[in-house]
Specification:
Strand order of the largest sheet: 1-2
Strand content: 5-15%
Shape: elongated
Radius of gyration: 20 Å
CATH class of the largest domain: Alpha Beta
CATH topology of the largest domain: Rossmann fold
CATH superfamily of the largest domain: Vaccinia Virus protein VP39
Helix content: 55-70%
Number of strands: 2
CATH architecture of the largest domain: 3-Layer(aba) Sandwich
Number of domains: 2
């Protein structure tokens, strides 16, 4: 099986579209993972991840690029706080449900919780955060962050 066939198989198994990634970089990462698992070909590796749930999870975790930062892109957060959220609450009332897809280690949904908590309190807010990478999701559930992770937060949220 060539790389094109491998990408199709990966999509069938995981619904992850490898066409969205830079091919050279992705092939290098996948080839390293294939070698680590002592496979000789894409076909052999596909068979492995089909039958071994742990290897499949390892593959998905290895593929996903986890970028998360508290209060990332501060200008966008200001627009959200000053324009978008007040307008949302004016139209929909004080109840809000938010889905943070691909939340990684949870920095953004926790940032949103801080902003919403300041604006309206959290009793009428529901935030659901999901990620395909179970390892980073577990880290997000813990909610433990070091000082460096919190560096971008405005002082009022620290």
């Amino acid at each position: 099986m060539d790389y094109e066939g491998f990408k199709k198989q990966v999509f069938t198994i995981t619904t992850i579209d490898l066409n969205a990634y830079k091919e050279r970089q992705m092939k290098r990462r996948i080839d390293a993972l294939i070698a680590k698992n002592h496979c000789q070909s894409y076909d052999e590796y596909v068979q492995l991840i089909k039958k071994d749930a742990d290897r499949l999870e390892e593959f998905v975790n290895y593929l996903t690029i986890n970028v998360s930062e508290f209060y990332r892109n501060p200008d966008q957060w200001k627009i959200l706080e000053q324009d978008i959220l007040p307008d949302l609450f004016a139209k929909a009332g004080k109840k809000l449900k938010v889905w943070s897809a691909a939340c990684s280690t949870g920095d953004e949904p926790y940032s949103l919780a801080m902003v919403l908590g300041k604006m309206v309190g959290l009793s009428n807010v529901s935030i659901i955060a999901t990620d395909i990478d179970k390892q980073v999701l577990e880290k997000a559930k813990l909610g433990l962050y070091n000082e460096k992770s919190l560096a971008g937060l405005p002082a009022e949220y620290k």
